[in-house]
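Standup notes
- HV: blocked on the assembly model, inputs below
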Amino acid sequence: MPTTLILGATSAMAEQTARLLAADGDKLVLAARDPQALEILAADLKVRGATDVHVLTPFDATQSGSFEDLLNEAGDFDRALIAYGSLPDQEALKNDPAGIRREMCINFGSVIDLSSRIASRFESKGQGTLAVISSVAGLRGRQSNYIYGSAKGGVILFLQGLRNRLQDHGVRVITLLPGFVDTPMTAEMKKGPLFVSSAKAGTCIHKALTRGKGDVVYVPGFWRFIMWIIRALPEPIFKRLKL
Amino acid sequence: MRTSSPTSWGNIPKASHSCHKLNSRLAELPAAEKSVLPYGLGRSYGDSCLNDGENLLLARGLDHWISFDSETGILQCEAGVSLAEILEKTSPRGWFLSVTPGTRFVTVGGAIANDVHGKNHHRAGCFSTCVLDFELLRSDGSRQTCSRNENETLFRATIGGLGLTGLITRATIQLKPIVSPLIESEQIRMRNLDDFFALADETQDTHEYCVAWLDGLASGNALGSGIFIRGNHVGEPTDLTWKKKTMLPVPCHAPSWFLRKPFIKAFNFTYAHKLRGDRHQTREHFLPFFYPLDVADRWNRLYGKKGFFQYQCVVPREGDGGPIREILEHISQSGQASFLNVLKVFGDQPAEGLLSFTRPGVTLAMDFPNRGPETLALMTRLDEIVMASGGALYPAKDARMRGEDFRTFTPNLNQFIPHIDPAFSSSFWRRCNSTPPVVKP
Ligand SMILES: Cc1cc2nc3c(=O)[nH]c(=O)nc-3n(C[C@H](O)[C@H](O)[C@H](O)COP(=O)(O)OP(=O)(O)OC[C@H]3O[C@@H](n4cnc5c(N)ncnc54)[C@H](O)[C@@H]3O)c2cc1C
Ligand SMILES: NC(=O)c1ccc[n+]([C@@H]2O[C@H](COP(=O)([O-])OP(=O)(O)OC[C@H]3O[C@@H](n4cnc5c(N)ncnc54)[C@H](OP(=O)(O)O)[C@@H]3O)[C@@H](O)[C@H]2O)c1
């Protein structure tokens, strides 16, 4: 049974992915900020069929000093999913450099830190799958959320390089790019037709982790087409759009 | 927090809500100025799961398992878990719901709040009989474990309590053992109401499950004709595993010819005469036996945009039918019956909930397409028969009964009221506890 480490396991998308991994009978190692929520999750995943569920000490992405201990505590694992993230209120952050730095730390700094540590572990084992949830928002800067977007965009580039580096070392690096997913993160947003459920997103992520071959996986797939168009718009036109 | 506004199964009445998605049973209730009401899967037909102009707590997100012991059949889960999910998880391991309604797409919370019944009511009673305990979260922030030994009156108030006593966050349920997913089922032609009663009596002790489907348009000597369906779990072990089938989608509201009387008449006639001989015996999977309507997703759309009413009453069994005969005569004369017409004799065991609907007698459940005043007038006439006989109507199926009738049907109302959480209310509750009644088809 493969073992999957999930960082930010209480995220709605991570939870739905974990349910499917549990049904496969996998072993799961879970980390997140909220120990009580993790306990509920762990009990649930056991009933769903997980062979073993191991809960790590509370994990906060802003506490980079604890990352090495956390990964040591996780022990040996075959796959890792980095799922946590924070969608800040861009308006409120506009004139708050400290806030911007904090968001960058959660969505970018901590993610590349953990990705490097995990990648090195996989590299020395000569195998492993690292999947990281970035976002379609990281593919083009928009006035409404370029702080979040640039952090997610940085992650995309970082993973691209990492994938290139580990290509011949038996390590798979998956960049996950969700569009709009109905989760607590988007609770306040009006739900248009492009929204999908967290269960649907979980199905896509589970497939990418267990069966897929893709390097860059849109969640769900139709976003590849939408982003192809959005990325193709020339900057002189794009900069005038209210997006 | 706003999302698209949920409806009830009959699509009557229209209502708008502020919706709060719940996803942690540890969280407190959302702070809200107006009243709140839990909402499960919206399989109630009328307005008992609606809270027009106020707040809904979408409890379906409380969908975590807590534990399942395959030695004892004791399951602990959150209240938003559906009976469908329970069956998928436990039946391959030899455990089955000891009571299930005619659809598996209801939540545990909803099943408790309406104290639902099934085809084995004559043997097993209501859903509450398999509930060992549950946790109730009240608006004062308190969490009370309720069972037959702990907070017993709150337990009895919450069973059948229409979601008004607080939010059920989790429950413990006792399942019953099975050795096969198959049902030994039998369908028998009924020529009339006398046949129904004779078969119901004969079946009491021989079959765990029984229900009858009626041709609601048959009249005269054929009044009450239809098909009597009964069954038992197969007793010798067979493979317990099964595969989920995809449901037929009903992508949009049906066209109006679908609800015209000649089409419905043809359907009823064909269905009533589908049996070749007088009897048909078969072994079938439990899904088609218990949940024939669940083959189609959102079949309520077949009733069009105007929606439909379900009328479910229970009346005492008298002589050769008494009130139930009178009711069926009225319906058949009105020509308003549609596809689903179900008759069953309830068992005599008293229900546990202060507001539980079931009581000894005969219960009839019928769908009526919404044809406006004509339909309302028919149901008002039926109400009179139910009232005169000392029967009752099922709030889970109701969008229009008069408040004073509800109060008559509910002898324990005064005992119940003190247990209502002050922050909880529903469209049904306001409608039935204020006079004069408001009916908006
Ligand atoms: C095809 C079909 C067949 C049916 N057959 C039967 C039958 O055979 N027998 C029968 O008895 N009923 C039957 N019903 C009715 C159905 O079983 C009930 O209405 C059931 O309560 C619906 O559950 P729900 O989860 O959809 O809840 P909803 O309809 O959403 O809500 C029902 C009530 O439960 C309350 N509630 C929901 N969740 C919670 C919670 N977590 N805490 C507290 N209160 C809560 C709501 O406030 C509301 O009062 C049938 C319905 C359909 C559509
Ligand atoms: N929802 C969308 O439409 C969408 C679209 C594209 C990308 N994404 C990305 O998808 C991922 C999953 O998000 P989601 O949609 O599933 O939302 P979610 O359910 O709100 O999950 C976000 C998770 O991030 C965790 N988190 C936030 N700050 C943290 C910190 N400092 N340290 C550790 N954990 C922290 C939260 O933990 P707590 O539970 O403790 O708060 C929560 O578990 C995120 O990376 C998000 O950016 C989402």
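- HV (later): unblocked. The two ends of chain A are 45 Å apart (CA to CA). Chain A touches chain B at residues 12, 36-37, 40-41, 43-44, 47-48, 184, 187-188, 190-191 (CB under 8 Å).
- Next: hand off to the docking folks.
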